[in-house]
Amino acid sequence: MSLKKINELATKLGSVNIMEVCGGHTNSIIRNGIRDAMPKNINLISGPGCPVCVTTQKEIDEMINLALNGVPVATYADMIRVPGTKMSLEEARENGADIKAVYSATEVLDDKNRVFFGIGFETTTPMTAKLLENDIAVYSAHKLIPPGLLALSTDKRVNIDALILPGHVAVIIGEQEFPDLNVPQVITGFEPENILESIKIILDQLVEGKKEIVNNYKGVVTKTGNGKAQKIINENFKVVDSDWRGLGTIPSSGLEPKDDNLNAKIKYKDILGKTITKELPGCRCAEVIIGQIRPSECQLFGKVCTPKNPRGACMVSEEGACQIYHANRN
Length: 330
Ligand code: SF4
Hints:
Layout: H1 2-10, E1 16-22, H2 23-31, H3 34-37, E2 42-49, H4 51-54, H5 57-68, E3 73-76, H6 89-94, E4 99-102, E5 115-120, H7 125-133, E6 138-142, H8 145-154, E7 162-166, H9 167-173, E8 185-188, H10 192-208, E9 213-215, H11 227-236, E10 237-244, E11 248-257, H12 264-267, H13 269-272, H14 285-289, H15 321-327
Parallel strand pairs: 1-2, 1-7, 3-4, 3-5, 5-6, 7-8, 8-9
Antiparallel strand pairs: 10-11
Helix pairs in contact: 1-10, 7-11
Bound molecules: iron/sulfur cluster (SF4).
């Protein structure tokens, strides 16, 4: 039903670029054939919503350096496979470093000597905040979606006519936290029919010249979000400028522990200061993240860079555009 309406509306429009911010949406869109089902003038572009992907090379290399210098660390299982300048965390572990891969931050709640490498957006931050509450040191690479969207909307390299907003982040921050970007924006769940409905809402708005934020994940996302999660984040983190892979430094877009004693970047600054880092040769993940190129436009895609042997962050996680495109290529 939505697809029929999408086709009708598309005939009234020129070329339209719709960015799905969240890697979960990219996954559902590609896996369910939604991108291929779109009319020719409706382009669905992957955005920066993969936590592993937007974490910078420097942040990854600093954690590897910390672990190689004898500090026990822990992070999410995906992250340990991301290539660093010289090796990944997984390879550092093979070289004797004490690195624990977890599926939830709470797995290290009793591990007071370990530094947790916190990555991701508002969805994973409350669990890292719980660690800080329990006096566990954190190296924070956490990022905030609203300032990230603002930066994207003013980035001259990308041309976005509308956004499919991340449902999971919206559950935490609420409908009201998304900034007005002067384009249609629709908060969306992950079922294919919900995504198609959101695309229809966007095209409807474009036909009518509207630029509104619509909540199409009702019953799950509220106006004000999850107050309990917001409270634990605000009590344990402060907002700082942050570097994003692909987008550079974005003002007030990151989080650091409020307590300097639990901030691994301060606690271990002498070790971290000696980290050698450089971008990985040939990897175009930074351009993939902002939708400037599709994964298949990278020369390494599917040849030397595969999910088994990733050459960049975007080929590691199930939310990474390169991994998703590779897994679903015909
Ligand atoms: Fe980087 Fe691999 Fe993606 Fe190319 S295919 S951009 S090397 S992650």
